[in-house]
From TrEMBL:
The keyword Transmembrane helix applies. The keyword Aminoacyl-tRNA synthetase does not apply. One of its GO terms (molecular function) is G protein-coupled receptor activity. It comes from Dreissena polymorpha. It holds the Pfam family 7tm_1. It is a multi-pass membrane protein. This is G-protein coupled receptors family 1 profile domain-containing protein.
């Protein structure tokens, strides 16, 4: 099927497509910029170099790929009323949407195991190789989803659905969809839930035992990190579950097309909020991002402002020294003239 045939014939109304495209475009740009900013500040700051922030960077990479590929294609389809690529790109987008979501879910599951070991089995955590576990997480979370692309039917598993203005997996690949749901959604979700239950039981039992201030501060920080990755998991699920439930119920696609636009936009917007979570819940990342904005503001102020209109409180050190030298030179010249 050529690209010219991927045009909507019974799709959503234009107003719903344009509103959806506008919302998705704004959140898409903010999501990409936010993830890139998080990656930059973590990469440039040596004090942010640790296992937790390595996991954050890995999740940012997933988000950037997902936003740049899948969300961009869906946004473009709502703008034009047609799928922007041929069938190969359409099918690859279908697979990568699920695979990147599965990779992110496995990230959160293995990070939950890491949090469980840190909080509940801290003595054991001191003995294991941190570098080894980090490499295992980064490799496992990508290899497992990619295994689902290793099949002879790849390239012929999806079809274009004009009502949704996107490609979906054909109905005769139900077993494949079930395996994807089990291994990329259910298992990592179950692992995370079990780990978090164990963590919060341990915290509840230890809250009275840790009376020393140092122990309380350590536990508080570890729980904050645990909550941060828990919210990332919830964002993934909150974005995907409504769409997945509707698709599972509406097998004949009898629901209104505009309703599908709404749940697709909801899914896409949820994908863009991870940088906000990192910034709000991680004090180190938040401080580093604020420093970037403060530095940029100082650069702009120094470039645009003229020294003669600056007062001493708003000057940079360099500008203040320049003005003071000019003042001293002027006073010296006046003394020489009077003498």
């Amino acid at each position: 099927m050529s690209n010219s045939t991927l045009v909507t014939s019974a799709g959503p109304s234009r107003i719903s497509m344009y509103i959806g495209a506008g919302i998705m475009l704004v959140t898409l740009v903010l999501g990409i910029v936010g993830n890139i900013l998080i990656m930059i500040v973590i990469s440039l700051r040596k004090d942010l170099t640790n296992i937790i922030h390595t996991f954050v960077v890995s999740l940012c990479i997933n988000d950037i790929i997902n936003l740049s590929l899948n969300n961009t294609l869906v946004t473009s389809s709502y703008m034009t009323g047609r799928w922007p690529t041929g069938m190969l790109g359409c099918e690859m987008s279908t697979h990568f949407t699920v695979l990147l979501m599965g990779s992110s879910l496995w990230h959160t599951a293995l990070i939950a195991i890491h949090r469980l070991i840190v909080v509940v089995f801290n003595n054991f955590y001191k003995k294991i190789s941190k570098k080894g576990y980090t490499i295992f997480v980064l490799v496992f979370c990508r290899v497992v989803p990619l295994l689902f692309l290793c099949q002879p039917s790849l390239g012929h598993m999806a079809y274009y659905e004009p009502k949704l203005i996107r490609c979906i997996v054909k109905k005769n690949y139900g077993p494949f969809t079930l395996l994807v749901s089990i291994f990329l959604m259910m298992i990592p979700s179950l692992i995370l839930i079990v780990c978090y239950i164990a963590i919060f039981i341990k915290v509840h039992q230890s809250s009275q035992a840790f009376r020393a201030h140092r122990h309380k501060e350590w536990l508080k920080r570890e729980i904050q990190i645990t909550k941060m990755f828990g919210i990332v998991f919830l964002l993934i699920m909150v974005g995907y579950i409504p769409y997945g439930i509707v698709r599972a119920i509406d097998k004949t696609l009898s629901y209104d097309s505009d309703f599908y636009v709404f749940i697709t936009v909801f899914f896409a917007v949820a994908n863009c909020f991870n940088p906000v979570v990192y910034g709000v819940m991680d004090r180190q990342i938040r401080s580093a991002c604020l420093e970037v904005f403060r530095w940029r503001r100082l650069v702009i102020d120094d470039t645009q402002a003229s020294p003669e209109f600056l007062n001493k409180e708003t000057m940079t050190i360099h500008t203040r020294m320049s003005v003071e030298i000019d003042d001293c030179t002027a006073r010296s010249n006046m003394i020489q003239l009077e003498s």
